Please model this.
Amino acid sequence: MSLNALPQLLLNGFFAGSFYAMMALSWGLIFSTAKIFHFAHALVFTVAAYGAWMVASQGMPIVGTFIVAAAVGALAGLAIDRGIYRPLRRRNALQLNVFLASLGVLLAGEAVIQFVFGVQARSIQGFTLSPLRLGRAGFTTLEILVVVVSWVVIGAVVLFMRTRQGTAIRAVESNPELSRAMGINDEKVYRNVFLVGSAMAGVGAVLFSLQETASPTMGIEPLIAAFIGAFVGGIGSIGGAILGGLLLGMMENLGGIFLPGHLQVIVAFLLLFIVLLVRPVGLFARDTKA
Amino acid sequence: MRVRGAYRQHSPSRWLGRRGLAVLAAAALVVVACGEEIDPDDDADPDADPAEEVDDDPDPDVDDDDEPTAEGGEINIGALLAMTGGGSWYGEVMSAGAEQAVNEINEEGGVAGYELNLITEDHESGDADAAVSSVRKLLDVDDANVVLSSFTAPTVAVQPITSEAGVLLLNGGGVGDELIGQEALYNTRMLGAQLMPPLVEWALDEYDAQTFAVIHWNDDAGRALNDTVVRECEELGCEVVESEPHEIDERNFSPMLARIAAAEPDVLVVGSWGNDVGHILDQARRQGIEVPAIGNEWTPDAQEIGGEAMEDYVAVLDTFDADNPVHAEAEQFIEGYTESFGETPEFYGANYYELIRFVVAELVEMVVDDGGDPTEPGALVDAMEEAVAADHEFGSIYGDQMTFQGDGTILKPAGVYRVEDGSLNRFAALEEDQVVPE
Model:
């Protein structure tokens, strides 16, 4: 047991959890509305990161890089929905078939990125790091950026969900047939959730690349965090996805008190399986069967 | 040209890692969330092979079997390298070095009447299962007469198979202790057990250190390096206060580094390779771990990833100085490599070049001179054993010659380097287990 590491682990957990919360909301929004296990979200994340790297390497300021990544992410997500998912929806494809198609898109996309950009990791420059300390715990201005951007994006999406468009999304999410009968254009709603969710992934991709690097297979770990966070929090619950992601980040890091760091992945999946066993709808979603 | 790259992009074994776990969990969640039942017989194709091979034969219009060959036939050289994954930089430079040697030899008319044929396979940056699968393909399908490998875990995993098949196994990249003293396995990379003890001793004095922490790959190479540091510290009177293993190609080191920071070591030892070195140092500095860092690896990619966090990092490495070639053959390699691949070779490329250019080529000549057939199982292994027993001096581009030791290791020029202003600068040599400042 390493209690001396507690302050650092708590802080790391909050940093990671903030990022996971944004990613869980991003993925959960698409899954809960379109009912698609959007594995290709990882590809959207990667494409946006490479887009960000391309403009950042040309000297674009960091704010511009975020905007470009969000736009690239949104377009990539929309393209996948319009090019792959919508034709499958129109053919009433099984959920499992759509999932497999999504997986195929991810694999093919990763291979294309590797072919075009090579296997080398790409760093996004343009943000100046300054070291900071909070008691025994060390961090930098980059971690502050991650937290601030993540929560600003989360806040913006929460506000968006209170608009007319957001209300339409919630209506389709809870009952697509009824909302269609009420005159809501569900294809337009799907377009909106892919645009919003994928733009969030684009922002997340810049944060991730600033902390680590962009590489062809970079999207898989944020995707895992996103879907675990979304399921732990509760599908269809915005607050649940946010809290689920935050909880995941905290648990992964606080697991370091008891376990060697390389076993953190066990903590994540253990959390998921326990929640699925004990409360399958997720910790913070309303249980309609109760 | 007789160079083929036939590595797979994704093998089943790769999918049994974290990604596989994610897919399985995701599939389960799809079923849970959507309430669909999966008929196990539905659409299942047990014969389907997701690991479809990609053959990037540079000349697909030419049937390999119909190409003219040298009088004696072909020596098939299997190269089992990290062509994908986090260590793919290694695969790139190692395969380039090997390719350079094969091209040079074939352009000169082959060796002892034999043309060389290079077949590259992928162990996916250290995946032992992928390595076993690939080496079986190299032996059973490609009839490899010699196998070049890299990384410790894949090399150790395939060694019983190549040994059983009577095929010589040559490692130019892995550094783990388990590579020592294995049948029909020879190493041309200085191993961690040879390089790290002098560096630990040097760090003890240089930094007035009492305590060390080690973060290392959770594989044979990383664990061996950790064991070496622990053993050396016991002898020297220092202490390893924290050892944190991590998976190869890990991205988030914060839990391990938090535990290391809490242990307050005087020196951080990085027992990892490839991009991980850059990620570790970057994240360590961001967590406020400012103690000196030492290790057994540095790559240009890691430098780019780590950036300023790499400053003052000290690494002990094999020394191949492309700016100062030791003789005409080294110069020929450097010029040819630079012309072919557009960049200056470093020591990994040099290792795989000389494995073929000198070791394989000289062994083939020995077998043929003795009236044998180098493509026969065991022929090259026997020749190697005889050469080692006779202290045969193989050619080398590190110096005038290289001589293998009985345990399959080698002694080569090595140096101690420090990152200064983003560049790797040599400041000491490794001589007789001592760091000697220059």
Summary: The beta strands of chain A are 131-134, 137-140.
